[in-house]
Design goal:
Blueprint lengths: L11 H5 L5 H11 L3 H20 L6 H10 L18 H9 L1 H24 L1 H21 L5 E6 L5 E7 L4 E7 L8 E9 L2 E7 L4 E4 L9 E8 L12 E4 L3
Antiparallel strand pairs: 1-2, 2-3, 3-6, 4-5, 4-7, 7-8
């Protein structure tokens, strides 16, 4: 288990979203050269943001480009915004850093909600339901990531997948993120588990790189497991766990 000290290690999400100030970004880029845990977490945040945004994106209608090109000559160009040179107060930096995980969810939500609006116009009731589910998933993830008591642990599955669990005892929820996860294969699925004193209880599914909220009650669980199961899942693991990672304390 890797327990990160506050400050530098909390900037992975902001770095993944290009939300750091130039000086902080330069310092954190240098930090990534020596911190494998932060490199892994940054890559996972970038992959998650891209996947969630792409899931609800739609190509713009062809006529949009024509309208933009016709109108662009009549748009007045604004002068560049020059930020103040005064240093950001330490309290402001602290509040922003505490809100970094929420910034990830908010950025992904912005992309998702833009796609949702287009979905609703083009595809009707079925995709409206999918859009609501996407919103709920983003809300659930952001609730855990932004929790003041959120704790993180990293792991590696035997199939090479890089994993991260963020847990919030106060929210009684945990989020599981996977990167470099091989395709499960036909008729198979990756199933997540919560280990309650040796009893494995189903905690959801993940079939590709991304982030999911674990189902079930993580409060009295000691570890998160990952197995390869038949499509639809199993009531108990039928294969040797690819991963059994202690929940962050």
């Amino acid at each position: 288990m890797n327990r990160h000290a506050p400050d530098t290690h909390t900037l992975t999400a902001a770095y993944a979203l290009n939300a750091l100030e130039p000086g902080e970004r330069q310092d954190f880029t240098a930090h990534l050269q020596t911190c494998e845990a932060c490199r892994q977490e940054t890559a996972e945040f970038q992959a998650t943001a891209a996947r969630l945004a792409a899931a609800v994106s739609q190509p713009p209608p062809p006529a949009v480009r024509t309208r933009v090109m016709i109108s662009i000559d009549g748009v007045r160009q604004l002068p560049p915004h020059t930020p103040p040179t005064a240093a950001v107060p330490a309290r402001s930096r602290m509040l922003r850093r505490r809100a970094v995980p929420l910034a990830l969810a908010a950025a992904v939500a912005a992309a998702a909600l833009g796609g949702i609006a287009l979905w609703q116009m083009q595809h009707g009731q079925d995709l409206q339901q999918q859009a609501r589910q996407a919103r709920q998933q983003l809300d659930a993830v952001s609730t855990v990531l932004a929790a003041p008591d959120a704790r993180t642990v990293h792991g590696r599955a035997t199939n090479g997948a890089l994993t991260t669990v963020v847990a919030s005892p106060r929210q009684n929820k945990a989020v599981f993120t996977a990167g470099n996860l091989p395709a499960p294969g036909p008729g198979r699925t990756y199933q997540l588990w919560l280990d309650h004193d040796g009893t494995m209880r189903p905690a959801g599914f993940i079939n590709h790189d991304g982030t999911v909220v674990l189902t079930g009650n993580p409060a009295d669980a000691g570890a998160v497991g990952l197995t390869l199961e038949p499509t639809g899942g199993s009531p108990q693991p039928t294969t040797t766990p690819l991963l059994l990672m202690p929940l962050p304390a």
